[in-house]
């Protein structure tokens, strides 16, 4: 047992599992205080896109830190936020005309939900119900847990979570059921549908096709239901394109972005909103302004990092790097599909995932995940399975040799687990 002073997230300290002390990061690597090198096969929980300690992003952070560190963003602005807004305009659909800053994926989703309800309230219509997809994850605050899957993670807080309408996850043979449920739910005039486009991340890297995303969007559009795309994980190239929505030709009413927004260097998020959402709050009446802020909204240093990330996207062949990684992941997934104990090997863009059969305790509390993780750590590879779902999601700078090392470590871990 290790009763540590620092209380870590999603960590059962009573198990006494080792807590490596990471003292340096660079590219696809982490180094511990004991000089061990780990290959970061999960992009430090899905945030690191180009690579750790990217020189362009690090330089932008250093400049801003010594020049303009923090200002009040209510009623004030600064060039770093403006550079982010302009950079987003250049890369994202023009319909997503307005940018609201916050500081994490969870807050970007809270903002999206508040915008949706504010839209209806300011139009004088009492619509507040939110539709969600089964197995969704949108964050760990009370609001975002409410729109996410219920389970062991949030059972203790269930009395505080608000009620939502859950649509069945669109598996291959139940896609029509999802659409039918959405169609039926829309008739009761809900406020909004929130989805993770194409991939449900924390729910177990569950993938559904672009055609379904397009159909869900079309149904919402037909019924005037606000469509919120939570691209916090899927954005910034993860699914092979800048956003997952792009593959379905979908422009949502509201889009949440975080994680890779700063290349994975600093906490920052944006919620992009359509003209209609902004207009519903726009008036000479102070009572209809958007009532949301946090102390560090649009922090200049974090914005400088995001502006540097956007410049990298504009000026460097990021999608070519993503494509190369996607090809390797596809090749590996095809091999994994032939392994004895693996089920449902799948891939989309830079993400590859599969389940390891666990007859004793499948799901998030499976003991296989931690065993495989521990074996990989000993082999110099950082992964963090979601229960018995193993996935690989590295930064785009990863070399073929390092990918081979990841794939080998997982293969060996499975043969021993
Ligand atoms: C990680 C994640 C969030 C929450 O982001 P945080 O920055 O951890 O608050 C929200 N939605 C999705 C889809 C995510 O993957």
Notes on the structure:
The strands form four sheets. A seven-stranded mixed sheet has the order 4-12-11-10-7-5-6, sandwiched between helices. The chain has a four-stranded mixed sheet with strand order 1-2-3-15. It has a three-stranded antiparallel sheet with strand order 13-14-16, with helices on one face. The protein has helices at 43-46, 55-65, 79-91, 105-122, 142-146, 175-187, 210-223, 275-281, 300-315, 318-336, 368-378, 400-416, and strands at residues 22-26, 29-32, 37-40, 98-102, 130-133, 165-167, 192-195, 199-200, 206-207, 226-230, 254-257, 269-273, 342-348, 351-356, 381-382, 389-392. It has two domains: 13-53 and 317-416, Aspartate Aminotransferase, domain 1 (Alpha-Beta Complex), CATH 3.90.1150; 57-315, Type I PLP-dependent aspartate aminotransferase-like (Major domain) (Aspartate Aminotransferase, domain 2). The mean pLDDT is 96. 35% of the residues lie in helices and 16% in strands. Helix 4 (105-122) crosses helix 8. With 417 residues, it is an alpha/beta fold. The chain is built from twelve helices and 16 strands. The chain binds pyridoxal-5'-phosphate. The site of pyridoxal-5'-phosphate has 14 residues, from helix 4.
Q: What is the CATH T-level topology of the largest domain?
A: Aspartate Aminotransferase, domain 2
Main sheet makeup: 7 strands, mixed
CATH superfamily of the largest domain: Type I PLP-dependent aspartate aminotransferase-like (Major domain)
Q: Structural class, from secondary structure content?
A: alpha/beta
Estimate the global geometry from the Cα principal axes: globular
Mean pLDDT: 96
Domain count: the total is 2
Low-confidence stretches: none
Kindly state the percentage of residues in helix. Answer: 25-40%
Bound molecules: pyridoxal-5'-phosphate
